[in-house]
Design brief:
The structure holds two protein chains of two kinds. Chain A is an alpha/beta fold. Chain A folds into two domains: 241 residues, Peroxisomal Thiolase, Chain A, domain 1 (3-Layer(aba) Sandwich); 151 residues, Peroxisomal Thiolase, Chain A, domain 1, CATH 3.40.47.10. Chain A is globular. Chain B has a domain of 188 residues: Thiolase/Chalcone synthase (Peroxisomal Thiolase, Chain A, domain 1, 3-Layer(aba) Sandwich), CATH 3.40.47.10. In chain B, strands 1, 2, 3, 4, 5, 6, 7, 8 and 9 form a nine-stranded mixed beta sheet that branches. In chain B, strand 7 and strand 8 form a beta hairpin. Chains A and B meet through helix 4, strand 5, helix 6, helix 7 and helix 8 of A and helix 3, helix 4, helix 5, strand 3 and helix 6 of B.
């Protein structure tokens, strides 16, 4: 880190000292496990949703979801000994591969990593313990009953990846992995790290599926799984749960330039707010969600009509999609009708903790490929969700600025704004 | 980022602690806290708000209410506040009972509350909803190092906001059991441990009677001592804040974390208050 880039904003200052950029991407998803594969699938409108074996604890006789069917290998450049993975459960393995891929993509593995670099890790994951206890219990274990405190997943991941910086887990329900990116950017601003791996992933589990099913949050359209997830459509009836997610490597632009590493995009703006209305029931009122979008756009220093694409959170729930459409309209005002919007959850389902980071990757796809991923299954756009929808097929477009919304249980609102690399 | 990127000078951020509160309750007495009664001077809770909440949430929220009762002036700004909830292994008791029930009765037995009320974000979410806080709320940590992780995240977020009117201050709410509950095969606790919650309200000004310096991580600080501490960092910090409020001298605590982190609680006389310190490596 160069001395001049070491300084950080003083309290009260709104001037950012250095831009924070994305230099690495790793992804594991129902659509593929590499940036090019995911980009191709998103722009082709391909669905990763299919019937799954409900197993002994399946909530419905015919169950469907968006699973990660074949876990990717960890890149050899990370130098991870396979025997070290012996105590890694499925959740840990799903997180490890994209985090390692992101580091490799950012050229921060092995000898390429600058000596003494403080690389942090922020893992966005909402229900780590619940899933670890559940996996163990359903396999015959009794960990959930025992008075033990095991090391958290983020500790084990940081150790395995050889990351010396701080490592924390953050959770904001379905916005968790997006908040991980926001925290990583704050650490970079504060000089607490030189680079940071941030994002998150999630996995399917019987308890989670049952909880969302019992809540009537999941789609029950089991006759045609690939058409079940219908964001913004008038016939939507809930979301389809999925698994996977993504990790990004963030660092200061000056540091990326000094390492001569390719910059994929700038994380230009972050906006966060809370509804403070209810722990479970989605908020139909758009004020606070709009506040998060407005804050992110202002933080990025762009005007609403400079936004070229919004990747909506829209999961396909009756209340949530309408509220988000209203929030976008409230935040972007007169510019709304000129800003294309899509939800990639029609293809991937809802990746829960991993959704926000995956959808940040969808924004990077739009910036890199200069094309917008579509909202599939949007046969009859809901009149209450009136926006410039990118329906059914990808739309070529010049994209310099892309925003991604994420909302979660408890009224957590997040908007991230990405700017195309110069 | 060139070779030898880390500087010898650890990054540091100073915040003012404008309110603090603590709650300790045995597992057996937590049901009494769910009745919704609040300390005198604290805001009322929505009806039956705590009915489905995890024990960590009940105790953590009570710590926030104690802090507000002790410093009522902070209640005026609650709508602008953010919340960092840092529980250690929250939700285990409810999860255990749910899993046992699911094995008996199938997935229909899984409560719709388990994800929203027993996840890492639940404590922060409940504080935000109960007290109408519209700043960001997020759960941090979840394991044995939750307090350190929460402290570092909170000061980073509040400083990133730069004291903006939209986020003038953030609550750090950390919770832990003094010893983890032991559960029998039916999921019932066979011991009666104490659940402890500490709430600190911090702002980025660094100007105030009591300040919090979060120093690190950096190789310049020594690694934490491997031997386990007998006292709780939540208790240590609460005592230090109380002491400084009454004019006591500064206290430096080394908070348990795999990366070196130092926390200094200081009493500032008006004469010693100066420009907020904001250093970075």
């Amino acid at each position: 880190m160069t001395p001049s880039s070491a300084s950080s904003p003083r309290p009260g200052s709104s001037t950012r000292r250095d831009r924070v950029v994305v230099t690495g991407v790793g992804v594991v998803s129902p659509l593929g496990h590499s940036f090019p594969a995911v980009a191709d699938a998103l722009l082709a409108g391909r669905s990763g949703i299919r019937a799954i074996d409900p197993g002994p604890y399946g909530r419905a006789a015919r169950q469907f979801a968006a699973p990660v069917e074949c876990l990717p290998d960890v890149p050899a450049s990370c130098g991870i000994d396979a025997t070290a993975l012996a105590d890694f459960d499925r959740l840990a393995r799903v997180c490890l591969a994209p985090a390692a891929d992101a580091l490799a993509d950012a050229r921060l593995t092995g000898a390429l990593r600058p000596d003494g670099a403080r690389i942090g890790l922020v893992l966005g994951l909402g229900a780590e313990h619940l899933k670890a206890w559940e996996l163990d219990f359903l396999g015959g274990g009794t960990r959930v009953l025992e008075p033990r405190r095991d090391p958290t997943l983020v500790r084990r991941l940081a150790a395995l990846l050889g990351l010396d910086g701080p490592a924390v887990t953050v959770a904001a329900a379905c916005g968790s992995s997006g908040y991980a990116l926001a925290v990583a950017r704050a650490w970079l601003d504060a000089g607490r790290v030189d680079a940071c791996v941030a994002g998150g992933c999630d996995v399917l589990s019987p308890t989670t599926i049952a909880a969302f099913y019992n809540l009537r949050a999941l789609s029950r359209r089991d006759d045609d799984p690939a058409r079940a997830s219908r964001p913004f459509d008038r016939d939507r009836d809930g979301f389809v749960i999925g698994e996977g997610g993504a990790f990004l490597v963030l660092e200061r632009a000056r540091d990326a330039a000094s390492r001569c590493v390719a910059v994929r995009a700038e994380l230009a703006g972050v906006g966060m707010s809370s509804d403070a209305v209810h722990m479970v029931i989605p908020n139909a009122e758009a004020t606070q969600a709009a506040r998060a979008i407005t804050a992110a756009v202002a933080d990025a220093g762009v005007a609403p009509d400079e936004i070229d694409y919004v990747n909506a959170h829209a999961a396909g729930t009756p209340v949530g999609d309408v509220a988000e459409a209203a929030a976008i309209r409230l935040a972007l005002g007169a510019a709304t009708d000129g800003v294309p919007v899509s939800s990639t959850k029609g293809m991937t389902g809802h990746l829960v903790s991993g959704a926000a980071a995956f959808e940040a990757v969808a924004c990077l796809v739009a910036l890199e490929r200069q094309a917008l991923p579509p909202t599939v299954n949007l046969d009859h756009p809901d009149e209450q969700c009136r926006l410039d929808h990118v329906a059914h097929v990808a739309r070529p477009r010049r994209v310099d600025v892309a925003a991604s919304n994420s909302f979660g249980f408890g009224g957590s609102n997040l908007c991230l704004v990405f700017r195309r690399a110069a | 980022m060139t070779d030898r990127a880390s500087s010898a000078v650890p990054p540091s951020a100073t915040c003012a602690i404008t309110a603090h509160g603590m709650c300790e309750s045995r597992l057996s007495t937590i049901p009494a806290l769910r009745d919704g009664a609040v300390p005198a001077g604290a805001p009322a809770l929505p009806p039956r708000f705590l009915r489905h909440c995890d024990e960590h949430t009940v105790v953590g929220l009570r710590a926030v209410l104690e802090a507000i009762a002790a410093t009522p002036s902070v209640a005026n700004d609650l709508p602008q506040h953010g919340v960092i909830g840092a529980p250690c292994q929250a939700g285990r008791l409810v999860t255990a009972r749910s899993l046992i029930q699911m094995r008996q009765d199938g997935p229909v037995a899984i409560s719709t509350h388990i994800v929203p009320q027993c996840s890492l974000h639940s404590l922060a979410g409940a504080v935000s909803v109960a007290l109408g806080m519209h700043g960001p709320h997020l759960g941090v940590g979840g394991g044995p190092d939750a307090f350190a992780e929460g402290l570092m995240t909170a000061v980073s977020i509040v400083h990133a906001a730069g004291g903006a009117a939209s986020l003038p201050a953030v609550w750090i709410v950390a919770t832990e059991w003094d010893e983890e509950p032991s559960l029998d095969a039916a999921g019932q606790a066979v011991n009666d441990p104490v659940c402890r919650g500490l709430a600190l309200l911090v702002d980025a000004s660094g100007l105030g009677e009591v300040t919090l310096d979060v120093h690190g991580p950096s190789a310049a600080l020594s690694r934490p001592v491997a031997a386990r501490r007998r006292s709780s960092p939540l208790v240590d910090v609460a005592r230090a804040v109380s002491s400084c409020r009454t004019g006591g001298s500064s206290v430096t605590c080394h908070i348990s974390a795999p990366w070196p982190l130092e926390v200094t609680i200081a009493h500032r006389t008006p004469a010693s208050q100066s420009t907020p310190r904001w250093e970075a490596a």
